[in-house]
Design brief:
The chain is an alpha/beta fold. It contains 12 helices and 14 strands. Helix content is 41%, strand content 17%. Helix 4 runs antiparallel to helix 5, helix 5 packs across helix 6 and helix 9 runs parallel beside helix 10.
Amino acid sequence: MSGRPSVILEAMINDFHQITWNDRLREDWAAILRLAMAEDFGAAGDLTSNALVPEDAIGRAAVVARRPGVVAGLPAVEMTLQAVDRGLHWSPQCEDGRPVAARQCVGTIEGPARGLLAAERIVLNVLGRLSGIATLTRRYVDAVAGAPARIYDTRKTTPGWRRLEKYAVRCGGGRNHRGGLDEAVLIKDNHLALGAQTAAGFTPAEAVQIARQFIDRNVSRRGVIVEIEVDTLEQFDALLRTKGVGSLCAAKGSAPCVPDAPFLPDIVLLDNMTPDELREAVTRRNAADAGFELEASGGVDLTTVRAIAESGVERISVGALTHSVVTLDFGLDWQ
């Protein structure tokens, strides 16, 4: 595996925004929770509990993991309980991001029995979904331990759940890629293909420069990351050959160019390349002393991720973290 020049390590770029549990996540869960309660309660409420459970009955139950994993979503539990019945009290016995064993209690709920039963499925659903993502992420993170690569998520998320699911990735030890189209520039093959069909068609290097100039003119915040996807080592070499400064796009008749604007992106995404091709890209990047990071994407699963990481890339993006997750099973045990 090729080592990275120390100058690149010292000049590592800023990362994408990393999600923590905050007001935006609380707002997301509050909106989802309204839909979840409407689904479960409808117009008549919980018919079974209303028929069989006395109105003044008090219950106490433990939320228990049925199998080992990593917990995520505990802050959503208290929000759910308060929305269903303000008399319910939540006592967490764990923190998000912590590993749990099978049959381990992560918290207890006490209060009106009708409310507890009504909230049960919503609580278990959100914990199961987010903990499943955190658990799978931890498996990927553990699989690349000792290699320079970090595990990143993607935008392949459930509509409306994106920030919550990306938060769960962080609980599992992964990193967040861009949260939305407004957060960073990611020039993909379709952007280049569309550009090639116009009179002012552009190369990957020109696309990077045009994007940077657009950001300078139109985006108020600083430090917006520019990333570009390449499918072949030939495309990658074309980027390396334009290392330096200059003003290529003027000849294409596109937007006004900034003299001496940099050609290089912050990150190059190497799409569907083999471990050997990834290793060669790392070698060529290091030889050129190009100060960008390399991200591998495509064909990544738990059987391939270690070989990809050992190629020397700094980032591996994994759509499976959120689109192919298996729910971590939790149950409600009455005490």
